[in-house]
Amino acid sequence: MVHAAWLPPEAFRSVGSRHTVVHGDGPLVDTVLAELRAATGRHGGTVRHGGEAGAAPLDLVLALSATPLPPSPQSQVAARVRAEAGSTGAEGFVLARRDGITVLLADTPAGLLYGLFQLARLGEPAFTGHRPAEHHRPALHRRIVNDWDNVDVHPVMGQVERGYAGGSIVWRDGVQRTDLSRVAGYARLLASCGINGLAVNNVNVHAGEAHLLTDRLGEVEAVAGLLRPYGIRIHLSVNFASPVRLGGLPTADPLDERVRDWWAHTTRRVYQTIPDFGGYLVKADSEGQPGPFAYGRTHADGANMLADALAPFGGVVHWRAFVYNHHQDWRDRGTDRARAAYDHFVPLDGEFRDNAVLQVKHGPLDFQTREPVSPVIAAMPRTRVAVELQATQEYTGQQRHVCYLAPMWRTVLGFQPWGEGGPTVARVAAGDAGPAGPAGTGGGGLVCVSNVGDDPYWTGHPLAQANLYAFGRLTWDPTLDPAAILDEWIELTFQPDDTADPQTLRRTLHELMDSSWQTYEQYTAPLGVGFMVRPGHHYGPDVDGYEYSPWGTYHFADRDGIGVDRTRATGTGYTGQYPAPWSDIYESLGTCPDELLLFFHHVPYQHVLHSGRTVIQHIYDTHFAGARRTEQMRELWRDLPAGLVDPALYARVGERLDEQVRSAHEWRDQINTYFLRKSGIPDAHGRRIF
Amino acid sequence: MVHAAWLPPEAFRSVGSRHTVVHGDGPLVDTVLAELRAATGRHGGTVRHGGEAGAAPLDLVLALSATPLPPSPQSQVAARVRAEAGSTGAEGFVLARRDGITVLLADTPAGLLYGLFQLARLGEPAFTGHRPAEHHRPALHRRIVNDWDNVDVHPVMGQVERGYAGGSIVWRDGVQRTDLSRVAGYARLLASCGINGLAVNNVNVHAGEAHLLTDRLGEVEAVAGLLRPYGIRIHLSVNFASPVRLGGLPTADPLDERVRDWWAHTTRRVYQTIPDFGGYLVKADSEGQPGPFAYGRTHADGANMLADALAPFGGVVHWRAFVYNHHQDWRDRGTDRARAAYDHFVPLDGEFRDNAVLQVKHGPLDFQTREPVSPVIAAMPRTRVAVELQATQEYTGQQRHVCYLAPMWRTVLGFQPWGEGGPTVARVAAGDAGPAGPAGTGGGGLVCVSNVGDDPYWTGHPLAQANLYAFGRLTWDPTLDPAAILDEWIELTFQPDDTADPQTLRRTLHELMDSSWQTYEQYTAPLGVGFMVRPGHHYGPDVDGYEYSPWGTYHFADRDGIGVDRTRATGTGYTGQYPAPWSDIYESLGTCPDELLLFFHHVPYQHVLHSGRTVIQHIYDTHFAGARRTEQMRELWRDLPAGLVDPALYARVGERLDEQVRSAHEWRDQINTYFLRKSGIPDAHGRRIF
After folding, report:
1. Size of interface A-B (CB pairs under 8 A)
2. B391 Cβ neighbours under 8 A, 6+ residues apart
């Protein structure tokens, strides 16, 4: 059994019960037709490809903008919509309903495909009443998922690095799976929420995975063939040292002609095999991966070398900005890991090729539950910047805890680095506030580390599916309301029309998920200080776990206070990496938001927050509240009337909630005990702290 | 290249240059003859087996007590010694020199073998002047080494569990090595310092290792055949669930007849294959290993079942007392892991068979640098108790740090649980203060976890060889002075007669090693509090690493003080497990020894020690001093004149000293910073704390 995620057959009930005609041709039109044939076959409708109107009345017309329409009454409706709507743009579509006909128009086959999934989302309302022409087009051109799959099982990281949903759906035991049907299903899920790119392997490119670029390219080709029908281009993580490791060259120096020739030759071969190959993804000089520093070259030198190799074929290199010293000495208070990406990359602004994208994690550290937005995003006006998010819940409960991430992502994407009224992070990524790329191909885009594995529910925790879905939807429209996205996901996934009490299920899921990120934040590391997780696997609390480590992630708690002084006045100067007004807002205790206080300031436990509580009382209160909230979440699930969801899914969610409750209480007690022992300040409410 | 450890060819120079006759027969006499032939072949002496005196003058006579001596002048000397000396006891020997003849007599061939190695230790002085008859006999009958070797490489623990010297010398890649010559060399090294038993595999018996008992018994037989010529009996760690896992039975209940029959049958087969098999070693109901608790039986039930199976063949079961709850909740202050072995086993005193030995770790926790002696040792007068020591430096620097353990072991073995003048721990283990076993076969004996692997120097750190040597010597005489043992080891290993400046090497090694345990203690966990190591691998500092873990090893440091209250008055009552006077000495702050203060008491940082310093100042002072001392140790080694030791060994020790210096400074800084942050009390001497 593989769970259908948000595309169960019932999701196409409305579409599939209609009489539909499709005008246009192309591989993606074939995909649309295949989807429609499957849906109508199941739900009693019909579908025709072009031609005149038949006997049956038509409900739905899908048409490419350039395809001539036959002179039927339905076509006249479609033609009127076409005339009024104008161009849909690449990948966009127009949806309208008039005179009893629903019309879906697009300039490209991809637009028709995305429109089809929009019809599934709308369900019956797409086929009732009047709908004025609605333009849909993706806010971002580059909407990419990064899988961190290994070919081999890594002794520490497993087969999917930071994977919490089983093994890879592509590889097993070091070889490609013979049955890749789940990859096809994955592609369909991704396309249905708007994704158009997939980097298929881990950014940490180990020995086995390096060969995907050359002698194991056939495996990439096989996956590409399954993504292509859903409009998804494949990308490949490559090892910067490939010319040495695979090519037998004595160097990987990006300015060495032999190296450049090797990449040019190798890339040409990739495109001969996969003509729509998307490009490379590179983690260089980071956490042990090789990079240009070894040759005294800059990261622009490294990225540009690959960009030059890709340019003749329209490919793009995504170069990760996640570069920092992971052998830091905790005794060295002068080094601030949060500064690293900015310090490394901002001086290179303007030096990157048009087809080089700098891929920046949304926060300056590493996908913590709460971080400020990375200052790099606002600091490189002449560089195409992609923003990287993480659906795999490395630091947010590892798909054992409910943690709906869309509210966090929405906060990030809506952040205005230059202050109120200025461009948002999403607009930077879209190229609306920075370089848009050659011929307006968009900015760097949005990227998300996938949370999928070979688990029957795809994501371990069934409710974690919503994160992947939400990411896709936010790439189309970063202004969407997370609760509205969740509504879509609930409707599609659970098809509550079938249930006895759809409102109860919907309400329960919203209560469980809407504020689950805030709940998770409540019972884990407080006030933006980050980490406090068990080293290595990153699950569960360990307040000092990284405090004396080489990883640069410290909280500096002592008997008097806690937090990292990143001010210009007395700290690491990190606040100076932001433009005004944030550089000042974060700098001042008077204006720094509570939720980021300890990220920016070292304060006494008795410091009073804007909320009116002291830091120490905030810690106690939020940890009691967060743990208590997980009990309520479990009760909500237990109280769900039988039959509203599949019993197996019900049981799986229930088990995970048990673990979340256990873990949240462990977090509560470790954190509270740690700070009671250190501060000596009792809880104002006299609750039990061990 | 495999290093010869303490038996280089030169160790037999004096013996090998003599003219020797051996009177007596038996397999171990053959070993003695082979040793003598190799030595004389190299160093110019001669050796004859029995018969009349030849032409050459004789220097050395070895004779079994019962072997008739020929009527030569040398034999007359030997006969006079024999008449005066009387019985040597099993494994003992008598050594004398008179009228220019050195005489070595023994009742058993094993005695001759041990005597031969004593001659090597003595060197030239064995052959000069007059030596009155000296009786040597082992204080303990059971002198056993436990190897924690796995057949397969364990994903976390490696091939040798807690092994810091490479892989197993017995197995590789899941199968037995074809070349077992290092096992033969290991047997010779062990015999030369007095060991007579070896448990060949890890007490954690995983799936592969379990089969050594049955279908892979041939591998045990092969090792036994290499140990036998050196008087060492093989023991086997077995899995308590073997009747289920190997025998296909539905239960491993020790009172079930089918289970008892299976063990009887299986054990019979073991003895058919290995007639001198020593017995079983069992870790049951401990850290995930199966045991009798699953069937509602006691550990006496479990041990006795195996004892009954072994009894017909003279075998002994070693049953480990290392039983505790390793899923403890850190919030549960009522549970004290230190109490566990006593609470589990003392009620069973008197219920164990004569051929069941309870094997007790020397301290109540787990081989920490400083622990009190386990109260179990003094609490089971009707049980044969073996004391388990650990040469593998799990918590004492992992053979990267110099840490000569004989001073710690000497302290343990000389401890008098019933107060001054009473029996020592060594006497309990020898059966002089408890059951001696059937027919006076001795108490439970001494056991040591080995520190050997397939490293060319056997022990990773070349100087760690001295620990294995010292353990063997202490089993013969637990009252030996650690410095004197070290002297022996230096003489044998480095043969300083050959060096230009033997005193410099000897002095340097003593300066490096004599106080190295105290030095290690100085820079690690203070005042007996224990742990503070990185979880999992146990190397390097992590003050809170186990503080919120399920392992039951906590220090309870808060802003005011630190330590575990194990008193009867206000704590866990653990002090009550000791007989007087220790139950009172440990109970009272006024009498508790400084070095164990935090093991027994929770005290404020400002508590004044007997030394006159406060606890906090003691922490700072010892950590600065310990780290500084490692620098001095490195200087001592660097200052060693070239040529005194082999360059490769010199380099290996030098590298390890570099790491020791680095690690000791890391310990110093983490511990000092942790306690400065927590206590807020500055160092009285204003030294730098980060």
Report:
1. 54
2. B405, B448, B449, B450, B451, B464, B467, B468, B471
